[in-house]
## 1
Amino acid sequence: MKQINWKDIDEAQEFARPGAGGYVCHIVDVEDVPDKEYLLVYLDIAEGEFKDYGKKYEESTGQSWGYQRMYRSYKEKALNFFAAFLGDLERSNPGKFTKAGFDGDEQKLIGLSLGVVLGQEEYEKQDGSIGVRTAVKQLTTPQKIHDGDFKIPAMKKLDRPATQQPEAINDADLPF
């Protein structure tokens, strides 16, 4: 192993993770996926106890898993949903952004604020165990988050097939 001056290395810190709730976030990155016609939007928490959670997580681990991600389709059949997203951005960023003025340059969305309601959902890990993650469930304005004008959704449970029960045996069917 190479020689390292360990007294100069800080120990990794465990981060408290944001849970279900309302947060004021800002867009930190946007990726266009043109062949599938959607934007992948990365959000980081902009205020409060978890401010810059994604950035701090990335600085600590080198991974971008601390950012909240949401997908916004701009396929023909989803244009009204994308328009609602742009409307949320306009209401959240008065004087900075207008839906009508959006020219399709997704990079201009970086830095804009949104009110975001996170919910929790179960998922199956690669080893088959069940984990819990937070996911964007609703967009709103930062003012509505500040006012507490939102509902935290119930945890979304993973659909699992009911455990198979053995068939009931009728004593009359036994040969003895």
## 2
Amino acid sequence: MSIVQRQVVIGVAASILICSFFIISFLFRFPLIDWKELWDTNVMDIPYVIFVPSVSIFIGILFGLISGFNWKKQIQTVDNWLYHIEEGRQIETKELNAPPELHSIVNRVGKIQKQIAEQAKLSQKLATEKAEDMESRVQEVISQERNRLARELHDSVSQQLFAASMLMSAINEAKPQTNERETKQLKMVEEMIHQSQLEMRALLLHLRPAALKGKSLQEGIKELLVELSQKVTMDIKWKVEDFPLDKGIEDHLFRILQESVSNTLRHSKSSKLEVLLIQRDEFVILRVVDDGIGFDVEEAKAGSYGLQNMHERAVEVGGTLKIISLKNSGTRLEVKIPIMKQEGEAND
């Protein structure tokens, strides 16, 4: 039963009770000699015994409708406030024209918004400090290990591939082309060695830290997608706007993008990939869309470490992560992070 229906029922019941009380009180004080007079007496051509209850019920229904719609409007107003809070939008409580009955709720909404904003600021500050501290310690270790691995690969496997390539080239030049099949096979071996050299060079180029060391988020995204477009046949498009962000937010967004792109390459079987990074309405929005085979989001959440990791990273900086995926209709991932203004920027 809706609130309007409930208020109508309450109004009708209250009006009948009040009407009955007054009628009984009146008859008790002035008893009727002949009860038939109640039926014979007409009001607007309607018997008195029918007119009075009908008017009472009508007044009850009218009161119930007015009261019900008023309560429904107030509840919808509160629901709208809660929706804006859930979406992370700021509500100016001073500008709300709320009825007196909702003043206490308005005050509580203001306090909740303040608490959420303070928690988001603290989360972003801690994430920034954590990212800077971890990057300063981890990047040095990673860089040293990657350089060591690249140096060993270059000094061993890369040199051996180069020697094998030179040897095969010399064999093909010196050997007379008497057997066409054998010559073709030797050429194929030479091409395979040459391709392996190219793959090794690409691998050596990849042996570098993956974090945003010395780069902005926008630079890191463009570099990642340009490099990816050169190595895969997927149609990759991106729109990346330039705007400043805290280091912690940049690091988390870049890691989420890496994980999302990795999942797309491994599982989606898509031919198109679109990446969007924009700032709208005091929100940073990162969106990754593909046209792949899609998946069951609820089922994947239970067993996917990658999805859980992306969600945790978004929450750590006070944001939200939403994934929409339909079978054979692609996947859309969107991260929204509120930009918390500093105290000195509030009146700018």
